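Example 5.3 — Putative tail fiber protein gp53-like C-terminal domain-containing protein
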Amino acid sequence: MPLFTTVWNLLKKNPATDGNDIFNIQTMLNDNWDKLDAVLGMKAVNADVRVATAGNIDLSGLQTIDGVTLTAGDRVLVKDQATDSDNGIYIATADAWARSPDADTTAKLAAGLFVHVKEGNANVGTGWILATTGTITLGSTSLIFVQKTGAGAATDAVVGSRTIDDSIIASSGADTPTRLWSKLGNMIKAITGKANWWTPPATSIEALNTNKLNATAYTAADVLAKIKTVDGAGSGLDADTIDGLHLTDLTVSKSLLSGIDLNTVTATGIYRLGDNLVNGPSGVDYGQLLVLHGGGDTIAQMAFSFGGIDVYSRAGNPAQVGGNGGWGSWNRIWNSARLPNPARTDATNTFTDFQRIQRSLSGSNQLFAEWNAPDKITYQWIIETSGNLSLWNSTNSVVAARFAPNGGNAWTSGNNPANFDYNGYQKLASGLIIQYGSATVGSNTVRISNPFPITFPNGVRSMVVTMGTTVNSDTAVVSNLTNSSYEVTFGTLSGTTTRTLRWMAMGF
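Solution (predicted structure tokens):
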């Protein structure tokens, strides 16, 4: 009785039972070949190809594909044609290519067909499957091949999205790979405290463990030993806390030696002054000095007199603090003790021996006066737009005076400036200015223009010209007049001799 193979059911002789039975070898072989052909037609793996395309190509000739120069008979996976139905497995020849015998009919093509690529720059070692589903009609149905194995096979399309969502909180240990990674990212954020899972913490867990407090109770000495030490000045409560200074050092308070140069005292603090100070204000021996130097190249100092009322200040950009300037001058700071006492000046009140007053009046009037003896003004300054200035003298009488407009000099009867040259001027106490002069005029001159000896500050009001000649036909007219110059135009100048023009102008 004949036997059949267990997988493909091929017919074979059974020596134990068939004995000398005669079989028709042709019938048996044909039957087995039919079974082999049917089985091979249902296979999912085709023979290897040498190369696979990476773009649309002409299906003819021995060309170079993916860096490989083809020879006749090479198997080629064509997967990127502009017309998808032209894709498939081909045999390369010098002429037009034909489909490979194992993939040249509809019956030999089905979804899941797998082919391996042996060579090529990009596709070497990759495996591709036919992804087209349903009934395939060769030559009209699109044949789509997708990568299944090899470098680049693990794409999002194959393994799913690889972008995790680290906001997902784990509720169980079973999930898809991407969701498991998302839960792990969320846990990492919770541990590090960072906004994302990939930023490491500033201090590792191992470092935290090294620096953690011991489980046993700490003594006061243990706690003080943990206080940060700065500049190597000690530990515990003796550690410097602010740039190498104890809190008690933040305000420097010390005495300065007699004869010290205050230009060299630059550290911020309060100092007790000695005597014979260099570069200090007068009257502050044994007083106090306040120095303000917050950093940089500027500094300020204030000096207080001992037992007195005077306070002086100065500031600067000196070389002692890295500046390129110098110290400013010492200036006294005015206070209530420097105001008149009593504050009003009337018939019953007097001033002390040395006092000053500065008073702001209505409009633009400003008064500054200094007393150097009771009831006596020894120096006074006033700026007023108009009006009289009253000055006190030693007998408390009033001397009247007037200021020129716009803050000019004050005039008195013996204080009238003048210039008596041939072209001169006279300034009167009232503010009137008279100018005069002469000019030589040649024959046939039409016009002359000359400056005044001085400029009228506010305006010229009148000018008169005369000709020094007996010729009645000579005429002269002032044709242009400004605060600083005049112009005279002539009519008929008879004869050939020169003439002398004399003029006088008034203004203020």
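Remark. The first helix runs from residue 15 to 18.
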